[in-house]
Design goal:
Layout: E1 6-11, H1 15-26, E2 31-37, H2 43-50, E3 54-57, E4 81-86, H3 92-95, E5 100-103, H4 108-123, H5 138-148, H6 153-160, H7 164-178, H8 183-192
């Protein structure tokens, strides 16, 4: 990416959460938050004015039951990456419209790394959707191994002292990064990447 700045708009109804995310991103020189909007109706104008690289949006701003593609909210000719910033569970089909999914429970370092990864991939001419070019975080590797061992979301949450929603968020990120949805497929992936030994199954 050559150190090029990543310009971001945050679309989040909670001013407290938006300010917290902006503060996290301000700690990394590669990110610049251009604007924070609290309502979807303000987003098209902000995108038109700034042409950001990424829009980080709370999925709650969108009508998840609606059939319209989420990107229709962007002005013609504008196509920033759309990243979901979640705190609760959403339907997988709905979240699949986003280029990436992050959780409010993710660490600042994980959020920064994830955002850099998706932008670097697109700038390098890759697909918009995350693929297996992305490195799994250490926590995602731990979650993947636990899933491969057949543990439930509740069991994983208890083991790592995190919420079930956080486990679900990690699992979505793992699926997006690896492109693998089945537990059997994730088990094979874990074994091929030396995260898991067959004796542990």
């Amino acid at each position: 990416m050559g150190g090029k700045q990543i310009n971001i708009i945050i679309a989040e109804p909670s001013a407290v959460i938006a300010a917290g995310l902006a503060a996290v991103l301000a700690n990394y020189n590669s990110f610049k938050v251009l604007e924070q909007v609290t309502d979807l109706k303000f987003l098209p104008d902000a995108v038109s004015r700034y042409s950001p690289d990424i829009v980080i949006a709370n999925p709650a701003l969108f009508d998840y039951k609606s059939k319209f593609p989420l990107r229709t909210v962007f002005p013609d000719g504008e196509s920033p990456l759309l990243v979901a910033f979640t705190s609760v569970f959403y339907d997988e089909a709905f979240l699949s419209q986003f280029d990436a999914v992050m959780s409010v429970y993710d660490s600042p370092a994980s959020i920064a790394k994830h955002l850099r990864s998706i932008v670097e991939n697109v700038r390098a001419g890759g697909k918009r959707k995350p693929g297996d070019n992305y490195d799994l975080s250490e926590r995602e590797k731990e979650i993947l191994v636990a899933v491969a061992k057949g543990k439930t979301n509740k069991e994983i949450a208890d083991e790592f002292n995190i919420s079930v929603y956080t486990v679900i968020s990690h699992r979505k990120n793992i699926t997006q990064k690896t492109g693998i949805k089945s537990i059997a497929g994730l088990t094979v992936y874990a074994m091929l990447n030396n995260m898991l030994d067959s004796s542990e199954l």
